[in-house]
Design a protein that fits this description.
The protein is an alpha/beta fold. The protein contains 13 helices and eleven strands. The protein has a seven-stranded mixed beta sheet with strand order 3-2-1-4-9-6-10, with helices on both faces. The chain is globular and about 75 Å long.
Length: 346
């Protein structure tokens, strides 16, 4: 049942930032937190969990006014997130990356739902700061159109159906009881721990809501195709897909692996047709590339029709082709190491 809002309630929000070499961004995050519109009676603490930065991130966070700093050199991201949960004293928990900047009304938007939902997990994809590169603009369009199931809840727009697909730890806020019920993040996962966390919440009957009003700028969004490709290599995680698929009884978690399998199959068919055409001079064999082109262009066209514009179509085709290649490399076991894509991009 919804809580009574006749009298304002006192809450404490613990904002947890897991960071590695984010000295040039971390003060911006704290400054944005200081400027948040706060509901009456709400206290905020900021907690930095540092993975062993060598650029002065910890010192910059302390100078900026972070409430707590914890250093865990070499720890994985889910280990760092769970450490943050142990340090947190709030009944509301938020996760933001060290290079993120929440909008001034971010907390007000979240509080509107958290005060009305006794258990809830909220999130929305972070967006790159303007001006956007073509890669950033196309991928932002992808996320905005990915889930069409918009509805009204408590007088505001949300995505409740498959909302877990939109919740990442760059922009996630929840009741502490949710984290306690789920037992924190899965420390066996190298990446994809946030999707796994949100999905387990959904499976446990906890409302997982995508809230478009939760606006967060992410200064670490890849700006070039090369950086974006390395990010996708890093995000690809067969173990995470397998875990989600097992939890759902095969109903969820199979889209990316299926796309990857189709990508490899149609690409090989197209290459076979191209080679055969060159050898035999039967150039009609090049049409064997059509299934591959359809696999890439079909989803891009669907999202463009949903968004009522064809402008992002060429860029989406390029990104989906690169996405399939990155996932194929992971599926074939050719990229087992998972260093940060940001480090790899340097």
């Amino acid at each position: 049942q919804a809580q009574d809002h006749t009298h304002p309630m006192t809450h404490r929000l613990s904002i947890i930032a897991v960071a590695f070499n984010e000295a040039k961004h971390i003060a911006r995050l704290q400054a944005a937190v200081n400027q948040l519109q706060r509901p009456a009676g709400l206290e905020i603490e900021t907690i930095l969990i540092d993975g062993g930065s060598r650029d002065g991130t910890v010192e910059a966070a302390r100078a900026a006014g972070f409430s707590k700093t914890v250093i865990l050199p070499g720890a994985s991201i889910p280990v760092c997130r769970n450490a943050g949960l142990r340090e947190a004293s709030g009944d509301w928990i938020a996760f933001l990356d060290g290079d993120c900047e929440p909008a001034a009304d971010w907390l007000e938007q979240a509080a509107h739902f958290l005060e009305r939902e006794p258990r809830a997990l909220l999130g929305w994809p972070a967006r790159p700061p303007e001006p956007h590169t073509w890669v950033q603009a196309a991928w932002l369009f992808h996320w905005n159109q990915k889930n069409p199931y918009r509805e009204e809840r408590h007088g505001r727009e949300v995505v409740a159906r498959e909302g877990f697909r939109l919740a990442t730890t760059r922009n996630m806020i929840l009741h502490r009881t949710v984290a306690d019920q789920l037992g924190g993040f899965n420390e066996e996962l190298t990446t994809g721990e946030d999707t796994d966390f949100a999905f387990r919440a959904d499976q446990a009957g906890i409302p997982v809501l995508g809230v478009p009003g939760l606006r967060v700028a992410h200064y670490g969004e890849p700006a070039t195709l090369g950086q974006w490709f390395k990010q996708q290599l890093w995000h690809a995680n067969r173990k995470s897909y397998r875990h989600i698929k097992q939890l759902s009884g095969g109903k969820v978690g199979g889209n990316a692996p299926r796309f990857t399998a189709l990508y490899l199959g149609t690409l090989l068919l197209g290459l076979l047709g191209l080679i055969s055409a060159l050898i035999t001079d039967h150039y009609s064999l090049i049409t064997l590339f059509l299934p591959f082109l359809g696999l890439i262009a079909g989803p891009a066209l669907l999202l463009c029709l949903r968004g009522k514009t064809l402008r992002p179509f060429p860029a989406l085709c390029v990104l989906y082709a690169a996405y399939g290649l990155a996932r194929s490399i992971d599926l074939l076991g050719l990229h087992r190491a998972k260093p940060s894509w940001k480090v790899a991009a340097k």
